[in-house]
Amino acid sequence: MADAVIGTLILLALWQGLAFALQDRFLIAGPAQVLGWSIANAGLIGRALVVTGSNAALGFLAGNLAAIGLAALALVVPRLIPMISGLALVVFCLPMVATGPILRVMMGPGNGPQIVLAALAVYYTTLIPLLAGLRAAPASWLDLIHVYGRGRWAELRHIRLRAALPYLAAGLQIAAPAAFLGAMVGEFTGAERGMGVLTIRFTRALDIPAIWSLAAIAALVAIAAYALIGGIARRILHEPPPVILAPPPGGPTQRGWMQALAVLIAVLALWWAGMRLAGLSPFFAKRPSDVLAALAWAPDAAQTRGTLATALAQTARHVLPGYCAGLALGAGLAVLLGLVPRLSAVLTPLAVALRSIPIVTTAPLIVLLAGRGAAGTVLLVAVMVFFPTFVACQHGLRQAPGRILDVFDSYAASRLRKLIHVGIPAMLPALFAAARISVPAAVLAVTVVEWLATGGGIGGLMSLSASVSDYDMLWSAVVLVTLMSWLGHAVISAAERRVLATHAPEQVRP
Amino acid sequence: MPPFPLTRRRMLQMGAAGLALSQVGLRPDPAHAAETVALQLSWLHSVQFAGSYIAQRNGWWRDAGLDVSLLQGGPNAPVEPPVVAGNALVGISAADYTAAAVAQGAPFKIIGVAMQKNPFVIASLPENAVRQPADLAGKRIGMAIANTPVLQALCQLNDVDFNAVQIVPTQYSAQPLISEDVDCLLCWETDLPVAMAMQGIKAVTMLMADHGYAVHSQTYIATEESLADRRDALVALMSGEVRGWNAYRADTDAAAALTVEMFPDAGLDLPTQKLQAQRQVPLMFSAQTDQHGFGWWSDEAVEDNIRTLALLGSKVTPDLWDRSILDAVHGG
């Protein structure tokens, strides 16, 4: 605790010093300025916080309830699991640049789109751990229930729900900052007030103290929500919430391909029927056939494909290094803290803070600091990927089997040796789980930064297409981005199965 | 919702009756007579749309039997979808965006032009100023890559070698210019230079409209269907706009104060709004609007727009512009 306080003070001093050194460049406002501005504008910021906070809370509630409902459905009808997780992934991958305006047209003025986008931002990270948690019950307990002649209901009530609770807590903790981000991005679709609206306003006005104050307050709120949910979970569960260690969904087997095909057909059907039923104008709400035509046989199809390929290549140059750096940093820091545990008190709060600041407020700041080239974008993607990886790997390291460590201890093996031979193999399942869940997060980060700050790549192309009403291009880009996230997810799942079959066979047993 | 079923025609009749009554000092009960319509703005609330706020606050639309809601825009709120979908009767767009939407099949007409002169400027610092298009040669310009055709058009209109200008992709902020990462910025006369002035930094601005770049901005768009079926509502909406903007011109400080007062949660600052309000006057009003009224345009202006739009890669015909609503407003 004392370490954390000292660590925070050092960070604040560094921040203030940097602000002082760069004060004429309109880049950084220090903590003193931020405090001054926040006090002077307490009413304005307070009202904005209430609006965005309540939208985020409603979205958090709706998204998590939806996740719990879907998980329950999956439990009752296990055959639906591949379909549910497949559809859930596709919906989670949909870029907000495209969904925002459609939600606004469908829901009209008010808070609708903000709440829906917040819900969309959270349900996946709750659903996946829940699906894992509901299955994480030891078989012998289930056998016990059956020996007593009780049915599925008793099984659910006495065993599965309890086994799932820690997983639910982990999901909810990740969801809190995500809901805030979703609500802020939702405000970009024409909301009257809120933190997102103020962020746009102050970025344009070059009001540096205001931008930094918004970022700091958003971060504080997100950290508070994170800590609160963590605290409640600790009270109820009496042990720290575990991290998602879900076995990857079906590999590239015959059945896997069939399931993928079924998901694809379902997505196309829902897409087409949804737009039909909502009566959305084909001017901006393109159907699957429009996208196919635009990419395959329209007169300018070749040009469309070329534009998309160029944009996608540019995005790949940002997202791949950022994603790998984030994974390496997360795993590396977890390993470092395993070797030097004292550092944890200082570095863990920093890691939580970094992840909690909504990317919408950090994007302009990081681009201001790191430049408009690749560096800023790569950095932001890395930050998005880093935190879940770090938390998961820390948990994974703690899973190292005690009896094996005892053997190493009796041979007086060094800490490093134990880490290489016991800790890192034990960490692998967690690392892969984080890598899988981080794919959509990385794609979300890169498209948001390109859209709001750098203007390049597929995110920039999507916003440009919307501004010049080229909705064929926009929807083609949406399909491509979703497909890429899905493929990335599938590739990592395949690698995961292969590696874990050697290092952690218990994770991949059916 | 009205307490008894009303057809659109009856509501329009009542609206017209209300208009007539209001002229003899009698006002209809707005709760019963008002036809609900929406005006989709192109960006966040600010003095950029103050004419509409004045009309709203003074009840000029209500008196004409219209209940107008002003829908705020934003970075993820394109104007065209709500207008096509019918959520908004009129949207605030610009000739280039409208032309693009029409090319994609949207049935839009421009029924009024708020910004006669395009607000795009090249902003620079006085010690390294861009005052003429020729000054652009050898300069680093900060702008969104998406605006490359705009710069190309400006260069072509003024015989400047486009390849001699170095484009630096930047986000929409004055910061790169202040820290001298670039020599100039492509931005609006009414936002980034105003932000710089409020920070005490003087910027030189070269208005692209003064150098041949003719693209109508802040244009009012409506669908052909609305032009056919909802003419009275369109005329009433545009009359309120005209009245509001005339009042705006008479006292821009009051317009700024009203804007700040109406949107206390928008983070607006009164001195900034006052300066922005002054700066957009020369873009919106000219000898021509003095003669024909706010929002009006000449046939020559349309020809100039068509020429510039062709340089931007968009082919349009004069019938993109429809003056019939304004004729009714100013004639009636």
Low-pLDDT windows of residues of chain B: 1-31
Q: Taking Cα atoms only, what radius of gyration of chain A do you get, to the nearest Å?
A: 23 Å
At the fold tier of CATH, the topology name of the largest domain in chain A is: MetI-like fold
Could you say which overall geometry of chain A the principal axes of the C-alpha atoms support?
A: globular
The helix/strand order of chain A is: HHHHHHHHHHHHHHHHHHHH
Count of DSSP H/I helices of chain A:
20
Membrane topology (chain A): Multi-pass membrane protein
Protein name (chain A): ABC-type nitrate/sulfonate/bicarbonate transport system, permease component
Subcellular location (chain A): Cell membrane
Keywords (chain A): Cell membrane, Membrane, Transmembrane, Transmembrane helix, Transport
How is this structure best described in words?
The complex is a heterodimer of chains A (510) and B (332). Chain A is an all-alpha fold and 510 residues long. In chain A, helix 3 runs antiparallel to helix 8 and helix 8 runs antiparallel to helix 10. With 332 residues, chain B is of the alpha/beta class. In chain B, helix 3 crosses helix 11 and helix 12 crosses helix 13. Chain B is 44% helix and 16% strand. The N terminus of chain B is likely disordered. The two termini of chain B are 30 Å apart. The chains are: A mainly alpha (510), B alpha/beta (332). At the A-B interface, helix 3, helix 5, helix 9, helix 15 and helix 18 of A face helix 5, helix 6, helix 8 and helix 9 of B.
